[in-house]
Amino acid sequence: MFNALVVEKTETGTQADLRQISYDDLPAGDVTVAVDYSTVNYKDGLCIGPGGGLVRVYPHVPGIDFAGTVESSDDPRYRPGDKVILTGWRVGEVHWGGYAQKARVKADFLVPLPHGLTTRQAMAVGTAGLTAMLAVMALENHGLEPGKAPVLVTGAAGGVGSVATALLANLGYEVAAVTGRPETADYLTALGATQIVARSEINEVTKRPLEAERWAGCVDAVGGDMLARVLGQMCYGASVAAVGLAGGASLPATVIPFLLRGVNLLGIDSVMQPFENRQKAWARIAKDLPLSKLEGMIVPAVLSDLPRLGKDILKGQVQGRVVVDVN
Ligand code: NDP
Question: What distance in Å separates the CA atoms of residue 243 and residue 150, rounded to the nearest whole number?
């Protein structure tokens, strides 16, 4: 028997409780993993509570990412003792996830832990950090290089934003961090931001489709009005990597920045990302993310903290990266 956070459907919604379950309860899959750490993402907030419609079948074990050690494997790619990471593939939504001491998944969903990272560090990075890395890689593929105007990071004190800020600063970019929480300024500066932009300065759409050119690139975790506004502030030929919707799913923009400034809007998906690109992104994280800064983002937690943390992340109240020690 082992511990798991199990979400049950109730008459009024859902209820998440810490429970003992057994290997027989785990879903089918070809690799069984002893989970070391998981983390908390916005989607986890939805799946711990009743929201989102992401979970179809109850009882459910949430946790959209985890890192741990292979216990048994029917797949030749993995052997007992191998360290692995799981992100995406709708694990924690459609499949049972990482909020348990054991998980059973398809081998296709896993990537080997890259050299240079521990399983704890991998979950400090987590889906949020992987997505930040994919966003930076997409910007690089579209010509971003240091030495031009600052790169904007929106939702900077959140998970994606924190990792994007630290990565970009370490790669030599000047980083402008947008936050709605002025009290996080010291934290963001410690991650490498050289400019703090107040959310209120940038989160309303203006009548002007183009403003002065300010940003050489942008990692956007917010969407909505802020993304629309940022498009009109991009430098000629610059790109925005659209990662999230913390501020809304709409995009009340005009096409003018695309037509007159050659601005690019790049979509970033971490969930169905092919294995090769995932592996490439994890190798880049191990190389380019300063581990001392990663340590500074970590908020430690245990399984019993998750009902509270799930609510906090939905309210935008989590700073940095929660690392859940499931043991
Ligand atoms: P967090 O909750 O950790 O961070 C989101 C941040 O956005 C907050 O910390 C806050 O930053 C800012 N924010 C929150 N509400 C608003 C608002 N109403 N208006 C403007 N800014 C706001 O979440 P994550 O960093 O984990 O994820 C960020 C987004 O990216 C989410 O929408 C998530 O669903 C998405 N995502 C997408 C992935 C993909 O594959 N495309 C993968 C992972 C995440 P501050 O306090 O600094 O202003």
Answer: 19
Residue 285 CA to ligand 1 centre (angstroms): 20
- Number of neighbouring beta carbons within 10 Å of residue 145: 12
The DSSP code for 277 is H
Helical spans, DSSP H, in 142-216:
159-170, 185-191
Look at residue 315 and give its three-state secondary structure. Answer: coil
114, 282 Cβ separation under 8 angstroms: yes
Domain with CATH 3.90.180.10 in the chain: 2-113+294-325
How much is the pLDDT for 52? 74
Q: What is the pLDDT of residue 53?
A: 85
Q: Tell me how far the alpha carbon of residue 89 is from its chain's centroid.
A: 14
CB of 238 closer than 8 Å to CB of 266: no
Q: Are 225 and 180 in contact (CB under 8 A)?
A: no
Q: Which of 46, 127, 243, 312 to mutate to test the pocket of ligand 1 (most atoms within 8 A of CB)?
A: 243
| Pocket residues: Cβ below 6 A from ligand 1 | 41-43, 127-128, 131, 155-161, 179-181, 184, 199, 203, 221-222, 226, 243-247, 268-271, 313, 316, 318
Third-level CATH fold of 2-113+294-325: Quinone Oxidoreductase; Chain A, domain 1 (3.90.180)
- Concatenate the DSSP letters of all residues of 2-13 into one string: EEEEEEEE-SSS
110-129 residue pLDDT tens: 999 999 999 999 999 999 99
Between the alpha carbon of residue 18 and those of residues 5, 23, 61, 68, 280, the distances in Å are 4, 16, 10, 20, 36
pLDDT-flagged residues of the chain (< 70): none
Q: Specify the fold of 126-267.
A: Rossmann fold (3.40.50)
